């Protein structure tokens, strides 16, 4: 099936994934605690930046389809309950850049995520650090429509 390109804008998120929020429970960020637990289950994210790119595709919305990888019942913190995570393959590139970087849509299941809910038009993207992707910058996302379904 042909992949679909969607335009978005990088937005400021909760900043807990990266540790920039100043949350004493996660001084180095939630991803610093989660990445080793994901690796134990076969998902190596060591080449990815330890923060998410929050990309708004508004006015479009997304629906989760078939996940590339799901990790149920991940106990990643002594102060948080176990969570279910799903990951969806994507590619991302800032506008004006020719090549895409491989990434993943990071989706902690809302049913098991007690805090830090996202707007329904915002996708959290894990990718290598992309210098040109800063708050307010336009990006293009490339998805498999079986994994991420876009609607108006």
Would you state the CATH class? Mainly Beta
CATH architecture tag: Beta Barrel
Instruction: Give me the side-by-side strand order of the main sheet.
Output: 1-2-7-6-5-8
The counted number of beta strands is 9
Per-chain topology:
Blueprint: E1 4-11, H1 30-40, E2 53-56, E3 61-64, E4 69-74, E5 83-94, E6 101-108, E7 122-126, E8 138-143, E9 148-151
Antiparallel strand pairs: 1-2, 1-8, 2-7, 3-9, 4-5, 5-6, 5-8, 6-7
Question: Could you explain how this protein is built, in words?
Answer:
The mean pLDDT is 88. Helices cover 7% and strands 38% of the residues. It has one helix and nine strands, in the order E-H-E-E-E-E-E-E-E-E. It is globular, with a radius of gyration of 15 Å. The chain has a single domain (4-14, 51-151), classed as Riboflavin kinase-like (Elongation Factor Tu (Ef-tu), domain 3). By secondary structure, it is mainly beta. A hairpin with an 8-residue loop joins strand 4 and strand 5 (83-94). The strands form two sheets. It has a six-stranded antiparallel beta barrel. A two-stranded antiparallel sheet has the order 3-9.
